[in-house]
Amino acid sequence: AQSPISDVGSYKLLVDGKILNQEYQVVSIDVQRSFNKIASARLLILDGDPAKQLFKISNNEVAFTPGKVIEIKLGYHEKDFSVFKGIIIRHSIRSKKKKQSFLILEAKESPIKMTIGRKNRSFYGKSDFEICGELTDNYGLKLEMDKTNFKHPEMIQHSVTDWDFLVFRAEMNGMLVLTEGETLKIKKPGIASTAT
Length: 196
Hints:
This protein is mainly β. It has helices spanning 56-60, 128-137, 162-172, and strands at residues 10-15, 18-19, 26-32, 40-46, 69-76, 79-94, 102-109, 119-127, 142-145, 151-160, 176-180, 183-187. Helix 2 (128-137) runs antiparallel to helix 3 (162-172).
């Protein structure tokens, strides 16, 4: 029989590969992952005294600076598995009079880099598989995609982010995009496929 202690869910937060202070009181961890969207995470951590305007963790913890890489591991029976790894994009405080205040951290997986700036470019004699590979290579991302064979004489990307263009090309081939850390999976949905 499992001991009562091992039945309790567990978590670990790592920033730039280092485990964060285990004494922080994490109130909630919310990870959102869906097709054709970049996975995100939101953490709520008890922090500070609004009456004194003191927010110890927020003011002193450099690990929570936007741009840092945060990894969330969740587990059960004392085994933790990575469920999210991404970039901190927002760091804020939520406080109300005579109520507990919270540090709010928001993060997005690495493909968020593909959303910065609208681009214009042309691709000649390339398949969508090759185009998507070129787009992800520009950001150091890994691509797992069902191969496409048709080569476009010319394909134009006009005033659109690399992320939106990639999703559009996937949709034109009847595929879905799923982000997992630094990997983009672009595949056709299969009714008979088993979950992984």
